[in-house]
Amino acid sequence: MLTWPHAGTDWFSILEEVEPVFMAIAKAVLEHEHLVISCEHVARLQELGQLLSAYTSEEGLPGRVITVPAPANDTWARDHGPISVETQSGMAILDFRFNAWGGKFPWEKDNALNQHLHNAGAFGTTPIMPVDFVLEGGSIESDGQGTILTTSECMLTPTRNPTVDRAAIEDLLSETLGADRVLWLNHGYLAGDDTDSHIDTLARFCAPDHICYVACPDVADEHYSALAAMEEELQHFHQADGSPYKLTPLPWPDAIVDDDGQRLPATYANFLIINDAVLLPVYDVPQDDEAITIMQGLFPEREIVPINCRPLIQQHGSLHCVTMQLPAGVVTP
């Protein structure tokens, strides 16, 4: 699922730079699976539908495009998009509340987007269940076997759920997501990140027993202490059976700054796993090649597809942040 940028979003000044990134993501996804695109700009959405449908037809690709006109404040589908779960009755969509990372930006359209898409039939007959709790998809990472990895910096920020403590959050994740246990990281951040340290910029499961994570080897870098402390926390985590995790550090890209000299949150941890492939954000820096090599080692049976996401980090997010996966059975093209 992609929420496409338009002139009414913060992307308006660099649409010509950022739309090709979204297009590259869309085409890469369609080589492997179906794609839902929503956009507030109806004429642009129609153009996208025609262009991408022609692309899949000409290339003989398995993916099909579903386009839905829908209002949105921004494009971070990972955080305002639906979270899918498997229940005893089949697949279901959880519609958590979204308040733009604690009220930092306008959010009302984004918060209503999932219900809008559902009403338009984008999710077929899959039931949607509202959850009265602020939760962004980028704030949680699952091993698919009952373990959730998250950060206390984000989940315990009082501007999201001010009356809910750590124990209550664990109970809610158990009730809604089926979590048997929650691993909390208390350290780790990226400069320029608006999300209060989302886990999907810092550490990710690449297998149920294997975590890859952002590591900063430069002792003079402002990130060094926090990321070293995060690494130590990861080393002390154990799997449900008591075994330690396999850990793989990801490369540390050269610093990228905006026009005002502010550092931007470039991270290789913000990859997207799709059918038979992994879409990897790269940033036109020397460390890109090493990141591709490491990712191929982490996912040897999948194609690694590098996508230059340097334009995306101008708005302080990357590839995983602008996408939300939908399991088979949720969407019927």
Task: Give a quick summary of the entry.
With 333 residues, this protein is an alpha/beta fold.
Describe, in plain words, how this protein is organized in 3D.
InterPro entries: Peptidyl-Arg-deiminase_porph (IPR007466). This is Peptidyl-arginine deiminase. GO terms for molecular function: agmatine deiminase activity; protein-arginine deiminase activity. Pfam families: PAD_porph (PF04371). It comes from Marinobacter lipolyticus SM19. With 333 residues, the protein is α/β, with parallel strands linked by helices. It has a single domain (2-322), classed as L-arginine/glycine Amidinotransferase, Chain A (5-stranded Propeller). It contains nine helices and 15 strands. The strands form five sheets. Strands 1-2-3 form a three-stranded parallel sheet, covered by helices on one side. Strands 4-5-6 form a three-stranded mixed sheet, with helices on one face. The protein has a three-stranded mixed sheet with strand order 7-8-9, sandwiched between helices. Strand 2, helix 2 (42-59) and strand 3 (65-69) form a beta-alpha-beta unit.
User: What is the spatial order of strands in the main beta sheet?
Assistant: 1-2-3
Oligomeric state: single chain
Tell me how many strands there are.
15
What is the CATH architecture assignment?
5-stranded Propeller
Question: Can you write the helix and strand succession as a string?
Answer: EHEHEHEEHHEEEHHEEEHEEEHE
Average the pLDDT over all residues and give the rounded result: 97
